[in-house]
Amino acid sequence: MEDLEALIFEDVENYSYTLEYYGEVDQEETAHLTAVHSVSLVLYCVAFILGVPGNAVVIWFTGFKWDKTVTTLWFLNLAVADFVFVLFLPLYITYVAMNFHWPFGVWLCKANSFIGLLNMFASVFFLTAISLDRYVHLVHPIFSHRRRTLKNTLLVIGAVWLAAALIAGPALYFRDTLEYNNHTICYNNFHQSDPGIVLMRHHALIWLRFAFGYLFPLLTMSICYSCLVLQVKRRSILTSSRHFWTILAVVAAFLVCWTPYHIFSILELSIHHNGHFHDVLQAGIPLSTGFAFLNSCLNPILYVLISKKFQVRFRASVAEILKHTLWEVSWSGTVSEQFRNSENKNLCLLETTQ
């Protein structure tokens, strides 16, 4: 049982780390952790409040109002991934607010972790695909003209969702609940008796997510956008400056949001060898995951709303909606006025005949 309790320090997708360690810290440290968790809750709520309407707007326009193009398909699927992810945030917000007590049962423990990982990594992969698409479209226009089709884009989109599902899949198998100290904890049950298997599985999942969910996307985006900056710089200094700051914001947002997440994921592996980082992990895991959550509400701003073409089309679509709404109101008002005038005329005729 001691080995099992030592392993409740969970992976960062739902990070319900060991509650028994609260008994080993003094009141000052407990107050500090409570303050850190409060800040984390604020980050989760901000991600939910901004992420739901922001991604919903993108889904509405790219999915229902605009013509289907390669670009709109990328942004639509990116917004869907972020939207589904933030939509499930209230479950985790409740979990943290209840002092890491999971009242929703084992199946929602599994489903929540799977859906969270699926959409978080699908979002990262779509950001990577967008950077590759922009690079190919601008730097290799001939190849882009031949291969950049809706059919091929749909195939890549399917591959992205499949890859994200494969990375998230182990959550359906390993996630479990445990009753401990009047709390129900949602954690990764890698094995109940063999520490060697636990260590191997934990390391394998963490390094797999680091390599494919952070290192590969970061290198891909950095290389693609660096090449784009060089290409744009050759054409126009003014355009280069504008694109430089846009690209810098995109890469910086990815670094700020995801680097702490993966650093603490790797530090979490230390619990198998010593307890030196326990206090650091208790404070750092919720905060770092909160920053990762924020990336899902920043994506609509950095990747879509920052585009001048999107802004023009967005304003045009809003103007069209307002025009249609005002026309309906005006038409309804005109019909009502005509109906009232008709009633008045009929009433006058009736009075005259009488």
Written description of the protein model:
This protein has 354 residues and is mainly alpha-helical. The chain has a single domain (13-329), classed as Rhodopsin 7-helix transmembrane proteins (Rhopdopsin 7-helix transmembrane proteins, Up-down Bundle), CATH 1.20.1070.10. Helices cover 80% and strands 3% of the residues. Strands 1-2 form a two-stranded antiparallel ribbon. α2 packs antiparallel against α3 and α2 runs parallel beside α11 (278-305). The longest helix has 46 residues, at 308-353. It is globular and about 60 Å long. The model is unreliable at 1-25 (pLDDT under 50).
> What share of residues is helical?
over 70%
Radius of gyration: 26 Å
Strand numbers in spatial order across the main sheet:
1-2
| Count of individual helical segments | 12
Which band does the percent of strand residues land in? under 5%
**Number of beta strands:** 2
Major β-sheet profile:
2 strands, antiparallel
The overall number of domains is 1
Instruction: Tell me the distance between the termini.
Output: 98 Å
Describe the global form.
globular
Low-confidence stretches: 1-25
CATH architecture: Up-down Bundle
CATH class descriptor name: Mainly Alpha
Order of helices and strands: HHHHHHHHEEHHHH
The CATH H-level superfamily is Rhodopsin 7-helix transmembrane proteins
Structural class: mainly alpha
Determine the CATH topology. Answer: Rhopdopsin 7-helix transmembrane proteins
Can I get a quick summary?
This is Chemerin-like receptor 2. By secondary structure, this protein is mostly helical. The chain has twelve helices and two strands; from the N terminus they run H-H-H-H-H-H-H-H-E-E-H-H-H-H.
